[in-house]
Design goal:
By secondary structure, the chain is mainly β. It is built from no helices and 20 strands. It has strands at about 1-5, 10, 20-25, 25-35, 40-50, 55, 65, 75-80, 85-90, 90-95, 100-105, 110-115, 120, 135-140, 145-150, 155, 165-170, 170, 180-185, 190-195. A hairpin with a 2-residue loop joins strand 9 (about 85-90) and strand 10. Mean pLDDT is about 85; it is low at about 5-10.
Length: about 210
C-alpha cells in the first residue's frame, strides 16, 4: 500500500486490506477488498490507520461503507444501508444510522441530510448548530464559510451556523483563496466576490 501526500509516495508495509482511500494525517481509510472473477472488488472491513500503520478507529460492525476522515475532523461517517448513515469517533458510535447522508465541512461542524432531503448542521457530538435547514450545501472553503441554499437562493454560513452572507445568489461556489464565484437571479453572467460579499470583478460569461 502507498499513500500520496503532496506528490510524494509513502509505503505502508504489512497492511491487510485491498484499497486505501484519501486520508487526513492520522486517519488513513483502509478498505478491505476481494477481487471477484469478473474483476470487480467486493468491499468490506473498513478501518483507519495512522502514518505508522497502527489502527486508530473502526466504524460500527456491519457497516457497508465508511467515509474518509476529513482533515481535522473529530468524527467520521459510516453507512449501514443506503440512506442509513451515522457518525462515529475513535471511541465508537456517536449516532445511530438515522441520516440519509452526511457531509463534513469543518473540524467540528457536519451537515446531515434528513429523510425529507433537507440539510442542517450538527457538531461532532451530534448536537444541532443553529436552527436553520437548507435545501443544499457545499463544502467549507479556506475561510470557514460554507455555501448553503435556502428558499432557492445561495448564501454563506460560518461554523456557528450563522449567515455571514445572506442567501441572495442564484448560484455560488466554495471560497478558494478568499474568493468565490456567484451569479444573480435572471442574469446569465457570473462574478467574483470577496468574503464580505463585495464584487471584485466585472460580470463574466462563466
Amino acid at each position: 500500500f502507498r499513500t500520496q501526500d503532496g506528490g510524494n509516495m509513502h509505503r505502508i508495509p504489512d497492511v491487510p486490506g485491498g484499497w486505501i482511500h484519501r486520508a487526513d494525517p492520522d486517519h488513513i481509510l483502509v478498505v478491505g477488498a476481494v477481487a471477484q472473477p469478473n474483476g470487480e472488488l467486493e468491499l468490506g472491513d473498513f478501518y483507519y490507520l495512522d502514518r505508522n500503520g497502527n489502527e486508530v478507529a473502526r466504524p460500527p460492525e456491519g457497516s457497508i461503507w465508511a467515509y474518509p476522515w476529513e482533515k481535522g475532523a473529530k468524527a467520521a461517517g459510516y453507512m449501514m444501508e443506503e440512506n442509513q448513515t451515522g457518525l462515529f469517533d475513535e471511541n465508537g458510535k456517536i449516532t445511530e444510522p438515522i441520516y440519509n447522508d452526511i457531509q463534513y465541512l469543518s473540524e467540528d461542524f457536519i451537515f446531515v441530510q434528513e429523510s425529507d432531503g433537507s440539510w442542517h448542521p450538527i457538531d461532532a457530538q451530534s448536537e444541532p448548530v443553529g436552527d436553520e435547514t437548507f435545501e443544499d450545501c457545499l463544502c467549507f472553503g479556506d475561510n470557514d464559510l460554507a455555501a448553503v441554499c435556502k428558499d432557492g437562493l445561495w448564501g454563506y454560513l460560518n461554523t456557528k451556523g450563522q449567515f455571514v452572507l445572506e442567501p441572495t445568489f442564484a448560484q455560488a461556489t466554495i471560497f478558494d483563496h478568499g474568493v468565490a464565484i456567484v451569479s444573480l437571479e435572471g442574469e446569465d453572467t457570473s462574478f467574483f466576490i470577496d468574503t464580505e460579499g463585495k464584487a471584485i470583478s466585472d460580470k463574466l460569461d462563466l
